[in-house]
Amino acid sequence: MHAVVVGGLGFLGGAVVDELLARGDAVSVVDPHAARIRCDERFGPGRVRALDGDILHPATLRDAFHGADEVYHLAGRLGTSELDDDVPAAIATNVTGAVHVFEAAAAARVPSVFYPSKPNVWLNTYTITKVAAEQFAELYAAQRGMRICSLRYFNAYGPRQALGPVRKIVPTFAAQALRGLPLGVFGDGEQTVDMIHSADLARLSVDLLRSGYRGPPLDCGRGVPLTVNEVAAAVNAYFGNRAGVRHLPMRRGETPRTTLVADIAPLRAALGTLRFADWDSSLAETLAWYASRDARELDLALGASSAA
């Protein structure tokens, strides 16, 4: 099996590459930064084919997809309030870029394509662009005879998730706790998240694409709601941080006390029994990874989150 992962040097793209390599597949990584040395450092010498490509430049995609059995599209621009400050760039990357991937896959006659979407719960630029691309995926599947599978990823965590510049819950809390600071919680912290490990997202993405599934996008979380306050308490407990939390105004584009939890019954119907990493042990593994980071990296991340 020859799989191409677009954005394979990113956090979740890299997790998908790890999963594919563990299954013995031939993997090509398409990324604007996919220099051979970077791919060798991330995945091991010679384990993947490194292709310097960009979803904003369709010609690079058509060449990369030639002869592929599968394409996983994991590239994009992240952010909540961050993207509201640059809407045209978000549309260019997350919508037009996704269409370029679908067009190139159709031209190369790639049998199966995977596209990750997100829950549609907030009115912000990121959600709008992801939902629009999800709908284009359904359109291409219907009109071009392609098979494009989508999972709506809930709250990912795991080693290698970037500390910045986009603020994510576990990296930001880890950096703050490691510096003995109170964890910045938006609102009263009673909004819920559905935390799912990156390795689980990767495995389920590959499983769904290879199951032959044809149908609407499916929720992909553990189906277990946690309040943000509970996540903060777990991070503080791991690091022995007694500084507690400080409550901040809600970010633009997010609603107080949102209940976010995946309905995993349809995913279970498609794939059978589902298994997930244990929350406590996988969170500990993730936090240990952040504890191993260079102090300057933590301080830069804290500076970026303070400015956001």
Give an account of the 3D structure.
With 308 residues, the protein is of the alpha/beta class. It has 2 domains: 1-153, Rossmann fold, CATH 3.40.50.720; 155-308, UDP-galactose 4-epimerase, domain 1 (Alpha-Beta Complex), CATH 3.90.25.10. It is 46% helix and 17% strand. It has 12 helices and 13 strands. A 7-stranded parallel sheet has the order 3-2-1-4-5-6-11, sandwiched between helices. β5 (112-117), α6 (125-144) and β6 (147-153) form a beta-alpha-beta unit. α1 (11-22) packs across α8 and α9 (228-239) packs across α11. The longest helix is centred in the N-terminal third of the chain and has 21 residues, at 87-107. It is globular, with a radius of gyration of 19 Å. The termini are far apart. Pfam families: Epimerase. Belongs to the NAD(P)-dependent epimerase/dehydratase family. Residues 4-212 form the NAD-dependent epimerase/dehydratase domain.
Any key phrases for this structure?
two-stranded parallel sheet, 13 strands, 7-stranded parallel sheet, globular, alpha/beta, 12 helices, Rossmann fold
Structure described in brief:
By secondary structure, the chain is of the alpha/beta class. The protein contains twelve helices and 13 strands. β1 (2-6), α1 (11-22) and β2 (26-31) form a beta-alpha-beta unit.
The radius of gyration computed from the alpha-carbon positions, rounded to a whole number of angstroms, is: 19 Å
Task: Give the C-level CATH assignment of the largest domain.
Answer: Alpha Beta
The first-to-last residue Cα distance is 42 Å
Q: Quick one: overall form?
A: globular
Low-confidence stretches: none
Output the strand order for the largest sheet.
3-2-1-4-5-6-11
